[in-house]
């Protein structure tokens, strides 16, 4: 009944293992549960694997599920090890262990402690930090000794400190590893006798880190999907919604001002995403944040100065981290990534002494013809290059190839900047290529050619030689329909024009006109009286063509992902969230999760097994062999140090010397006759990448097309709308 009621949709379903822990972190019990994530509800069910027979057909029905509990999604909270202190209001909530059938002690509730499972790793980390502080005090006391002792001196004391620091690092890695497959959910429970609310901690073990990532990400997006602006967020004409897969609509994550300065009337120009991986983000933060990195947004005042705003996306809502002025309004941007280390040099060929590639950089094209190149945010956004285009012509478009940075200019020329010896762009050796008499609004680099638009024609230039015009073809019969946008989709290129509501598809090889789509048939679904519409922006992302219009409406069209001709066959969707003015740009934010996020405890255990080896030289006397930790880092013996051995026993004659150790901690295994090396730091291993994707649109204000009023806040400030897609697993 829960699965079939109303408009409820099943988003994720998986068999997870529920675990219950005691006061000391010991495992009390574990049992498989079937967990269902619905569009507004989280359901946990007991699994009855003994399928019953249907009396009439004698056909097994499969496993039966008995409801254990269900909770509304807004009340479900993911809590990681060490993060529980800020997860809820400590003064208003007591915590109970879900399976132990008892409330937390009063003192524990007051201190906001939660039983988070074996072996209470975060508490152990805090204990190690306290022990390190004590050992550092002991080290200071040891430094005051007057005598010289072989096993009690500053060398030994400093070795203790190094060992404890190493143990803390291993403990932090164990916490990170424990988070990878443990899904901890804080759920509302029944109030206690005094009426205070009780929160219940439920711990599930997921089959893999990939599963944990999927659950955290889907829970996060499902909550956002319950907001008013996403109920519904898209209008789907003539489509059967039941045939769509879960999360088939992008979810509007937030809408924010594009510029922090509200005193200036700033118009938007362009935006790019600079992906930067942050190792400081926790496991769940990575699963719920926008694509990691920084969003650069540029614009300015008409006839005045320009402005650049940089947002950090390492969270669920962007945050401004830097803002600075530029001499003129920003018209276009291009992000130049750092080349992959495997890209250069063919097999068997000597290394090419070509100019080195720069670090990731963001290029800005300004209204006054200035070309500015900045370093990434993590390097302090230094201005690496500043130059003026000959003639000081406005730069309308920027694109790059491995050899050149291309700038489309107002007079119908393309400026090609080659790389210099520093890996940047050589402004002194710029090549001016004439492609037409009208402004070059769009550039598109392909494998062996560059497409450049001028008026209603497209010129194809060969690369890397940039020889004279290879081919010129007419993209539209109307001279006023200048090509304004070009995006590639497989073996085709979609184009939008400065006039008209149509977009057209051309073949990359034959340049044949393959298809035309009229966007007016989609936009009239929201604004029936507005028959005239113009396409202002295009973006291709994960099999969908995003189309922005001058009415502020955004249309999503399905594009086949298979190789071949990417003709559009579906009706597509129209967003009910848009701008009060033209959509100035559509930008893609894309990043990949670090490979070590996919490593499970089993993978790491297998790796550490290879590192384990008996160490017979380190055996202590049999009566001293107890399970414990040998606190050492580099020293495996003190016999080589000066002074006498400080011990009640005599040192055994002929004690073997030991070389300097490699920095691992040694632990006593269950077999006390064998010393084994503890698990080393996890190492990266090749894994399938997980893509985090968001779409950013920029325009005047925000408009809810569900509202009855047909008047948007056209005088509103420039705004950004950010749509989030589920992680591509």
TrEMBL record:
It comes from Notiomystis cincta. InterPro entries: ARHGEF10/ARHGEF17 (IPR039919), PH-like_dom_sf (IPR011993), WD40_repeat_dom_sf (IPR036322). PANTHER family: RHO GUANINE NUCLEOTIDE EXCHANGE FACTOR, RHO GUANINE NUCLEOTIDE EXCHANGE FACTOR 10-LIKE PROTEIN. Gene3D superfamilies: Pleckstrin-homology domain (PH domain)/Phosphotyrosine-binding domain (PTB) (2.30.29.30). The gene is Arhgef10l. GO terms for molecular function: guanyl-nucleotide exchange factor activity. GO terms for cellular component: cytosol. The keyword Nucleotidyltransferase does not apply. It comes from the Eukaryota. Residues 610-623 have a biased composition (Basic and acidic residues). This is ARGAL protein. GO terms for biological process: actin cytoskeleton organization; positive regulation of stress fiber assembly; SREBP signaling pathway. The keyword Acyltransferase does not apply. Residues 598-623, 644-664 are annotated as: Disordered. Keywords: Guanine-nucleotide releasing factor, Phosphoprotein.
